[in-house]
Amino acid sequence: MRIASALVIAVILGLYAVDACEAAADLSRDMERLERLREAVDVQADRIDYAAGDRRIVASGAVRIALGTRTLFADEVSVDLADQIVAATGQVVLVEGTDVLEGDRIEYNYRTNTGVITNGRGTIGSGVSFSGTEIRREGERQYAVKEGRFTACRVCQPEPTRPWWEFRASQATIYQDEWIASRDTSFWIKGVPALYSPVFALPIGPRRTGFLIPRFAYGNSDGFAIKQPFFWAISRSQDATLTTIYRTKRGFEFDGQYRYILGERSQGDLRGRYLHDWESGQESPDRGEAHWLHDQILSPTWSFKADANYQSDIAVVRDFVDKSVAERTQPALQSNVFLAQTTPQYMFQALVAVTEGLTAVGEQWFSRLPELQLQWLPTPVFGLPLVAEGNTTTAYFLRSGFEDAGRFDLYPVLRLPVPVFPWLTSTTSLGFRETAYTAAARPGGDRNRFLVDLGQRFGSTFLRRFEAPGFGFTRLTHVVDAAVQYQYVPWVDQQSLLQFDSVDFVSPQNRVTFQLTNRLMGRSQAADGAVRTYEVASLTVAQSVNLQPTTREFSDVYLEALTPERVDQAVKDLRPLPNGFTRATERRVSNLVFQAALRPLPAVALYGTVALNVEQIDVEGINSGVEGRLWEDLTLTLGQSYLRDRQVDGIVATMAWKATKNIALDLLTRYDVHSGTFLENTVNARVGTCCWDVGLRFTRRTRGAGQSDENSVQVTFDLKASASVSAR
Fold first, then answer.
1. Contact 456, 428 (CB under 8 A)
2. What is the SS3 assignment for 672?
3. What distances in angstroms separate CA 525 from CA 470, 475, 478, 538, one per listed residue?
4. What are the boundaries of each domain within the chain?
5. Is the sign of the CA dihedral 81, 82, 85, 88 positive or negative?
6. What is the enclosing helix (H) or strand (E) of 30?
7. pLDDT tens-digit map of 475-528
């Protein structure tokens, strides 16, 4: 029968009453200690005895003692009431939260929370296991260990299996969630000594200052490379990673990343690098880049965001294969810093933006310093069925090779939606656009532009629901949206205007546009009762007819953004002019554009866009892709892009495969169909366990005409004991 602490205390108090005449002073003192002990300690055991002479409680047989957040298990426990020490023997286990201490014997002072464990071993919350001939608990979060061993492999390699790696030290001090400081330390791999250090520190907390595991790589353009990162835990809300890189063919590089949290709704990241490149070619050997990301909510309506970027030259990122594909292939470097206010009535934004081209030879940049934009959202006018909305911007532009200029653009629109039938809605729109400049593209040119925008739209929406259609769906909903729209914008000669962006050239319109969209929405119910709704399939067909096609002068900025899937304009017979414009003939019928998406399963999606030139019966452009997640372990993506006039025909494919519990494989392929060239192939293999990771990454990429292909191999090794490792 188990004996609980309340009964034990009552028996002991009775014994004290019998002997009160002999030890009144001790009784009074021990009564007070027993009362405190009763409030703090819950004792359960098969047998509990009290030794009056020694003033000691002895519990034996499956003893369990709960001391607040700590629980002690043992075969026998002796409690010294005078010294307030608990001595436990026989299969001793002390549990506190996720920390576990075991040993042959524990002497524990429950008042000071200190003690000694003989032939002990333990596990602390960070996942580190340790053992020693003697373990002293010297405080709430500090242990001193003699003849200690430390590893993080016990999570998946329990005793008595030999761990993959461990540290051994003659003396060590464990600062919980911080680090282990040790003397005469050796590093062992599968029982074989590999390294030795007279003084060593192993960080075991989630954010501890110290050196991270170095990285090694080899590439025929970089030579051998070693990266040594250092992590600096500045405070609870700030940290930094500083990395020194040495490449045998290119020299030294210094990287830094600083992360900060200024408040609950304010955080940011600052990154930079500098290198003195021995193989910079025509570029200066002093090269670098910097990036700043910041996101801050100032109030419920105000926010501040920054995405600022700098590169010393257009190839500083492209030259190094250890950068991501997105960074190495971006055509322009953009920086944006803006302050915004959003309300139910309007949106205001103050923007500073700089764009630097990364594809052309020579310096090309364009900036808005600043741009103020006010967009008022659709609002009924004086209770009438009219709806007013609009947009106005004020900007000051700077561009390489051109004069600075300011621009003011005002664009209000009135709309009149009228339900003609329950299934048909008519919307009439009237817009005015006034644009003024502080400079002109040519002497004597007009610096103002006034446009009228007339529109008429008829739209219908039909839907039908199918209950319990099968195929795992509880409901399918078929939605059909059909629309016919007419738009008129008169032709205005805009060659006298400076061309900065799409606002500066508005294509003349006398056009009817047709669009038909079919969507199939599916609803299913999971085994746990959760309801999921998603678009199973969609198909959109769109085309337009120009009622008055003619030959006009179009801005090159406008034509560069005129992709084949846009049906608001279509041109042919392009003849460049020397002033940044191109003379082209408008086509009567735009491309016939099909946009389709299919998701037969929640984890599988297919999508595509096809633009057909119906006048010449030719394919102008194709964009398609497949995304799939199979068996929760395999993810595949395949994307294809084709533009006939721009000679673009490329394929990008990726695969992420979790082959086994410990092995993962990532593949990336970029293929140029037009030239029949693999632009890049990357294989990244990772092997990991509960306490270490090894990665091998191989990249082969084409660097351009006259240059040999680049082959790069990068090897990484990580111990999972902590965020960083440092030798002191």
1. yes
2. strand
3. 12, 10, 19, 21
4. 3-204
5. negative
6. helix 24-40
7. 999 999 999 999 999 999 999 999 999 999 999 999 999 999 999 999 988 777
Under a CB-based contact definition with an 8 Å cutoff, are residues 467 and 475 in contact?
A: yes
The count of C-alpha atoms lying within 13 angstroms of the C-alpha of 457, restricted to the half-sphere facing its C-beta, is: 16
Going by C-beta distance under 8 Å and a sequence separation of 6 or more, which residues neighbour residue 87? 77, 78, 80, 105, 106, 107, 108
H/E run at residue 677? strand 677-688
User: Half-sphere exposure of 61 toward its Cβ, with a 13 Å CA cutoff?
Assistant: 9
* E-assigned strand segments in 140-285: 142-151, 165-175, 179-189, 192-203, 210-211, 215-219, 223-235, 238-247, 251-263, 266-276
Q: CB atoms < 10 A from the CB of 675, how many? A: 12
- Specify the long-range contacts of residues 704-709, CB closer than 8 Å, at least 24 apart: 708/220
Q: Is the model's pTM score more than 0.85? A: no
**Mind giving me the DSSP string for 584-632?**
EEEPSB--EEEEEEEEEETTEEEEEEEEEETTTTEEEEEEEEEEEEETT
Torsion of CA 569, 571, 577, 579, to 10 degrees: 10
Query: What's the pLDDT tens digit per position in 110-145?
Result: 777 788 888 988 888 667 888 899 988 887 778 899
Mutual angle of helices 5-18 and 24-40, in 10-degree steps: 170
What CATH code would you report for 3-204? 2.60.450.10
Q: What are phi and psi of 675, to 5 degrees?
A: -100, -5
Chain Cα centroid distance, residue 637: 19
Pairing of strands 251-263, 238-247: antiparallel
Burial of 319 (0-12, 13-18, 19+ CB in 10 A): buried
Q: What is the SS3 assignment for 514? A: strand
Give per-residue pLDDT as tens, 425-448: 999 999 999 999 998 887 777 789
What angle (nearest 5°) sits at the alpha carbon of residue 379, between those of residues 378 and 384? 130
Rounded-to-integer distance, Cα 321 and Cα 312, Å: 18
Helix, strand or coil, per DSSP, at residue 435: strand
CA 476-539-563 angle, to 5 degrees, is: 150
